[in-house]
Amino acid sequence: MIPNQPLAKDIDPRAFRQALGHFATGIAVVTARGANDAVIGMTMTSFNSVSLDPPLVLFSVARSAWSLPAMQSAQSYAVNVLDDAQQHISDRFARASSDKWADVNHRPGLHGAPLIEGALAHFECAPYASHDGGDHVIFLARVVSFSATQGEPLIFFRGRYCRLADAGA
């Protein structure tokens, strides 16, 4: 143990979350096909690359998320990296509702996971491993196909949406 290291009980969760918000991140919607061929999707900022060989990415899902069981049993995923014009899609998939897909143009990927039209990038993935991550489950996924287009990413910073243009880029 590191001397003077605070214990988890000494960390204020709200202050911790606020400090984490200082790390700007892109926004993705992870999609899959669940039981009875139902399409599922959820907004997340916890997506990043892990390995080039094999090509692995990770994302994490809250244990409280209604779609966690469907994600755990899915045979394929798609990570849809949102374009800066897709804030409405991020908002929609961030909420628990039954009509997330209404008016969202999408097509099935190679292995059935939905690809959202207009996304900046798509990563089609197969399950690789999952791990305990405290109040989240960490999913490692092997990339089997990907595509990317020109455009600008939708960014989340300090609890709000941003665009690269907002930062003077």
UniProtKB/TrEMBL annotation:
InterPro entries: Flavin_Rdtase-like_dom, NADH-dep_flavin_reductase, Split_barrel_FMN-bd. It comes from Camelimonas lactis. This is Flavin reductase (DIM6/NTAB) family NADH-FMN oxidoreductase RutF. Keywords: Oxidoreductase. The lineage of its organism: Bacteria, Pseudomonadati, Pseudomonadota, Alphaproteobacteria, Hyphomicrobiales. GO terms for molecular function: FMN binding; riboflavin reductase (NADPH) activity. Belongs to the non-flavoprotein flavin reductase family. Signal peptide: none annotated. PANTHER family: FLAVIN REDUCTASE, FLAVIN-DEPENDENT MONOOXYGENASE, REDUCTASE SUBUNIT HSAB. Pfam families: Flavin_Reduct (PF01613). The keyword Iron does not apply. Residues 20-163 form the Flavin reductase like domain. It comes from the Bacteria.
